[in-house]
Amino acid sequence: MGPYGYVSGEQMLRYVKIDSSSTAIVAGDGLSIATDGYLKKAAAGDVIRAIAVEALPTADLPASDGAVSILADVGTTAIYEWPADAGTVTQALVFTYLDFGGSLTVNIAATTDKTLYCIGVNTDRNTVLFNLVRTAA
């Protein structure tokens, strides 16, 4: 399977500053707020604020907050595809809000953060097609 990530639609690209607490980032990773507006690689259950367009390997991680920037999609119109973190996707997920499952996955059983909006599923690949959602978290 794969690759996962950007599918189509208009991206709103901008350079975002990375927090020193971030772990290595690959293109397509979800990014969440760490401290003071700096972003980090998101963990399961985090509210996604952007999706990385560039990778940031461990060797290049910043020693201080904001010392490194990467290109990311900060918009809400692009469509992305990630697999379910567990379970099987169904048509019933379409037009529902879902949570980030961690490491390029969607938690199809959680709707606490509602950070991803499902616009389609691929039952053959067990993936969710989604847009980012702006929430007031």
Key descriptive features of the protein:
35% strand; 6-stranded antiparallel β-sheet; 11 strands; 0% helix; single chain; mainly beta
Could you walk me through the main structural features you see in this protein, from its secondary elements to its overall organization?
With 137 residues, the chain is mainly beta. 0% of the residues lie in helices and 35% in strands. The chain contains no helices and eleven strands. The protein has strands spanning 5-8, 13-17, 30-33, 39-41, 50-52, 69-73, 79-83, 97-100, 106-107, 116-122, 127-132. Strands 1-7-11-10-8-9 form a six-stranded antiparallel beta sheet, with no helix packed on it. A five-stranded antiparallel beta sheet has the order 2-6-5-3-4, with no helix packed on it. A hairpin with a 5-residue loop joins strand 3 and strand 4 (39-41). It is elongated and about 45 Å long. The mean pLDDT is 93.
The biggest beta sheet reads: 6 strands, antiparallel
Backbone shape: elongated
Residue share in helix = under 10%
The Cα radius of gyration reads 14 Å
How many strand elements? 11
How many helices? The count is 0
Give the H and E element order. EEEEEEEEEEE
Low-confidence stretches: none
| Strand order, sheet with most strands | 1-7-11-10-8-9
Mean pLDDT: 93
Structural class: mainly beta
Instruction: Give the percentage of residues in beta strands.
Output: 35-45%
Distance between the termini: 33 Å
